[in-house]
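Try this one yourself first.
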């Protein structure tokens, strides 16, 4: 399994695309466009029937991509994600069963948290790199700035309601390592197969911290 730590993964690019795949035929060209644009850490969410096949397709077609599985909710999700080739996992929250399964599988996890108590509990279990979700509804940048005082050891990947302009503001915060977002792959561009447009958006996102 992956030797990359969650913190190392989050340092590879300022934006992790959050990918929802309805048609597995789109997976490989979409991943190719994102990687060419400079975003090689990709989260494929397990929200559609095509998700696991999409992970397999991206792993086969884009070996330079680091593909993870998002929306992991159960131990079964972890098993399926690892079997499909995922190298890391992302969850909207965290349960003991989910974290135990991920540790057993050797799958690096970016578990979700939205409150100080959730963050403290994950830190107690050895997680210092977290997904802050849902970022905007949960309090956004003001909450993360406030939490930096009592919990300076935590680094975050805010996800949920992030746009290009909001990403710039988040990435300026000391405890934000990267952000997760879907604006780099608009649905209409995917439907049209306009991979050049997605590559341009990915390059714009990848340049946020240059």
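Now uncover the answer:
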């Amino acid at each position: 399994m992956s030797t990359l730590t969650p913190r190392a993964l989050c340092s590879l690019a300022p934006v992790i695309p959050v990918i929802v795949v309805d048609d597995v035929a789109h997976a490989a060209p979409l991943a190719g466009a994102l990687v060419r644009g400079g975003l090689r850490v990709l989260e494929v969410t397990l929200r559609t029937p095509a998700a696991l096949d999409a992970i397999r397709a991206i792993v086969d077609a884009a070996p330079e991509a680091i593909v993870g599985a998002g929306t992991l909710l159960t131990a079964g999700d972890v098993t399926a994600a690892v079997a499909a080739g995922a190298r890391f996992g992302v969850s909207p929250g965290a349960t003991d069963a989910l974290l135990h399964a991920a540790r057993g599988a050797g799958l690096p996890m970016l578990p979700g948290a939205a409150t100080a108590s959730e963050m403290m509990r994950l830190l107690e279990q050895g997680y210092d790199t977290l997904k802050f979700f849902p970022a905007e509804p949960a309090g956004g940048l003001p909450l993360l700035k406030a939490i930096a005082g009592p919990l300076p050891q935590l680094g975050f990947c805010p996800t949920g309601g992030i746009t290009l302009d909001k990403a710039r503001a988040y990435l300026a915060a000391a405890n934000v390592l990267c952000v997760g977002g879907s604006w780099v792959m608009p649905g209409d561009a995917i439907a049209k197969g306009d991979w050049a447009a997605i590559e341009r958006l990915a390059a714009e996102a990848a340049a946020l911290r240059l």
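Discussion: Residues 120 and 151 are 8 Å apart (CA to CA). The chain has a mean pLDDT of 97.
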